[in-house]
Amino acid sequence: MDFLPAGTEKGDFRFPAEQTGCGAPDLSSPGRMRRNSMANGEIKFEVNINNLYREESMTDLEVGAIRCLIPVKQDGTDDDSRETVFFGHSQLMSPQGMIPLQARLEASSLAEAVEKFPEAMKASMELMIENVRQRQAQQQQDRQAGDSGIIFPGR
C-alpha cells in the first residue's frame, strides 16, 4: 500500500510546509525528493556532493524539535550561497500509539522557526486528520461496494 499524498506519483514526492513527510527532500530544487537511480537491477546510492547539508537539532524536551539543515560545501564549510532549511517535528499520543508530525518551517533564522513552529504543527495535524478522514471514507465506500478484499464465510 502506498502512503503518498493525493496527486503524487512515486518518485515525485512533494513536501510543502503543511505536509507531513517521510524524509528530507532534495533541497537544491525545493519540493522534490531525488530518487536513487537503478541500473542493471542495482540501486545506486550516490550522494549529490553539490547538495550537502549539516543537520543540527534543537528541542525543548517537551513539545517538539526543530531540525536545522545548514548547507555546506564539499569540504564541510558553510555554503552561504544557499539558505538554511528548518523542519519542525512533534508527536501526538493516540490510543494506537504515537503519531509523528513534521512540517517545513519557512524561516530564515532559528528564532523565526520557533515562532512559526506552533502554526506549522497545527497545519500538519489538520492535514493528517483530513487524510485519515479521506481514507476512512474511501474504506467505507469500498465496504459498501463489497470490495474490501476480505472473504466472509457464507457470502
Annotate the secondary structure layout.
Blueprint: E1 37-39, E2 42-44, E3 52-59, E4 64-72, E5 85-94, E6 97-105, H1 110-145
Antiparallel strand pairs: 1-2, 3-4, 4-5, 5-6
Summarize the structure in words.
The protein is an alpha+beta fold. It has a domain at 47-143. 23% of the residues lie in helices and 27% in strands. The chain has 1 helix and 6 strands; from the N terminus they run E-E-E-E-E-E-H. Strands 3-4-5-6 form a 4-stranded antiparallel beta sheet. The protein has a two-stranded antiparallel sheet with strand order 1-2. A hairpin with a 2-residue loop joins strand 5 (85-94) and strand 6 (97-105). The longest helix is centred in the C-terminal third of the chain and has 36 residues, at 110-145. The radius of gyration is 19 Å and the shape is flat. The two termini are 26 Å apart.
Features:
155 residues; alpha+beta; four-stranded antiparallel β-sheet; two-stranded antiparallel sheet; 6 strands
